[in-house]
Structures are given as C-alpha cells and as structure tokens.
Amino acid sequence: MAEPILEVRGVAKSYKQGQIETQVLRGVDFAAYPGELIAVLGPSGSGKSTLLNIMALLDEPTSGDVMVGGRRANSLESGERAHLRNHKLGFVFQFDSLLPEFTVLENVSMPGRILGAPDLDARALKQLERLNIARLAERFPQQLSGGERQRVAIARALFNSPSALLADEPTGNLDRSNGELVFSSLREQAESSSVAIVLVTHNEEAARFASRTVHILDGKLSETSLQGKA
Ligand SMILES: Nc1ncnc2c1ncn2[C@@H]1O[C@H](COP(=O)(O)OP(=O)(O)OP(=O)(O)O)[C@@H](O)[C@H]1O
Ligand SMILES: [Mg+2]
C-alpha cells in the first residue's frame, strides 16, 4: 500500500478577533495518495481555503499535524518549511496569478528559475505539451482565455514535479466548458504523473472528474459515500 503524500491528523483551526473565537476546523483527518484527484466540496465559509492553506504550509493549525512525504511539517522552522513547500508542493489559485510581463513559457518555468534549475525552456515546453497547450508558449497571459490561463497555471504548478498539487477554486471565474477543461486536465495529470491533487471548490461539477470526493461541513470532513447517513 502506497504511503500518503499529504496527510492531516486531528487538525483544528480557530481564529480570534478580540474576545470572539471562531472555530473553523474541528478535528479534520485527511490523506491524499499518489495519482488521486480529490475534490473537497463545501459551501462558502466552510473552511475550504483554511484547510488548503494549512496543507500548503502557508498557515498553521491551532492543533493537529500536517505531514508532507511522511515528515511532520508544522514543527519545522520556516526555512525548512519553505524548502518542503518549494520542492514537494504546487499551487493553483482561483484568480489568474500569471505574471503579465512574461510569456507563457517563462511563466511556466518560473518555479524552476527560482530554484536555479537547468533546461528551463525545454522542460517548460514539455509541460505545456502534456497539457495540450504548447501552441500558447510564446503568448502573453492577456492573450489567453481564462481556461487557457488556468491550464498554464497548472503547468507552472507542476514544473518542479511536486508530490502534491493544491488547487483553490481553480475554476472560480470560468464558464462551464472552460471549467470542465480545467477539471479534466487536473484528472489527467493526477493519473499520468502520480501527483496527488487536492481540489477545493464549491462547484459540485468537480465531483464528476474526481477519483474521490469529500465534503466539509461544520468544520469536519466526510466522504461522499457517507452522505445521507446520520
Ligand atoms: N484571517 C481570518 N481571520 C478571521 N476569520 C477568518 C480568517 N480567515 C478566514 N476566516 C473565517 O473562517 C471561515 C472559513 O473561511 P474560508 O476562507 O476557509 O472559507 P471557504 O470555504 O474557503 O469559503 P469560500 O468558498 O467563500 O472561498 C469563514 O467564516 C471566514 O470568515
Ligand atoms: Mg475559499
């Protein structure tokens, strides 16, 4: 049995504002395995981004553990966390996050540039080919549709061959057909590169493309198969 790439154990998160404490996550257990596309569904304000940011090591839980590649990540010092984040994790965000003054090819290779990696252009082109968008390589982001931009963002997130890819509402500002293209690209990448993809969204459509779906409600996660049971 494969080891989980990403795991959270008993994760709780609350925010304090003055005297008021809001409990957003109340003991979440979750594991993502190689090749899975997991859709995490839940209404607005249910804590999807909070959970994703904790898994992305961008935020810390109030209690509980986050494991990346079998390492307990939340006790690491910030340099080590950043190293783990840069080498093991990739991110796709809701809104266009491409750099407008760089071409598609340059945007895709940016994570490698930051790490001083070799063969940037050739590797970026290969990544674009895998997502069937190599023809866009020399364009600038403003010359692309929203769906094309998000696929470029996926190519960029995969550039350093992460073990896990975390996507927060990547289809949030797309129409239905572009949204479906993005979901199916994610599914293809999960299967072909054995990356674990965690897709957080309120778009129920995502469930059709996912290998597994979990719901977040009242600060807890439940598998779809448990739906309807008390
Ligand atoms: N920094 C913060 N300080 C206080 N409360 C916060 C903070 N960040 C989030 N919250 C609260 O935590 C709850 C969960 O927020 P979160 O952003 O995780 O929801 P979400 O499920 O991603 O919603 P959406 O679908 O609208 O993106 C919300 O009630 C929000 O107001
Ligand atoms: Mg959110």
Characteristic terms for this protein:
single chain; 230 residues; alpha/beta; Rossmann fold; six-stranded mixed β-sheet; four-stranded antiparallel β-sheet; 7 helices; 33% helix; globular; disordered C terminus; binds adenosine-5'-triphosphate; binds magnesium ion
Q: What does this entry look like structurally?
A:
Helix 5 runs parallel beside helix 6 (176-193). Helix content is 33%, strand content 27%. The longest helix is centred in the last third of the chain and has 18 residues, at 176-193. The protein has a single domain, classed as Rossmann fold (3-Layer(aba) Sandwich), CATH 3.40.50.300. It has a six-stranded mixed sheet. Strands 2-1-4-5 form a four-stranded antiparallel sheet, covered by helices on one side. It has helices spanning 48-55, 78-88, 104-115, 120-130, 146-157, 176-193, 206-209; strands at 6-17, 20-32, 37-41, 63-68, 71-72, 89-92, 164-168, 196-201, 212-217, 220-223. The protein is α/β, with parallel strands linked by helices and 230 residues long. It contains seven helices and ten strands. The structure holds adenosine-5'-triphosphate and magnesium ion.
Briefly, what is this?
Helices cover 33% and strands 27% of the residues. It is built from seven helices and ten strands.
Radius of gyration: 17 Å
Low-confidence stretches: 226-230
Structural shape: globular
CATH homologous superfamily grouping: P-loop containing nucleotide triphosphate hydrolases
Structural class: alpha/beta
Strand residue content? 25-35%
Share in helix: 25-40%
Annotation field: number of helices:
7
Main sheet specs: 6 strands, mixed
Structurally, the number of domains stands at 1
Strand tally: 10
Shape-level CATH architecture: 3-Layer(aba) Sandwich
Say what the CATH topology is. Rossmann fold
Listed once per kind, the bound small molecules are: adenosine-5'-triphosphate, magnesium ion
Strand order of the largest sheet: 6-7-8-3-9-10
User: SSE order, as H and E?
Assistant: EEEHEEHEHHHEHEHEE
Can you identify the CATH class? Alpha Beta
Mean pLDDT: 91
**End-to-end Cα distance:** 30 Å
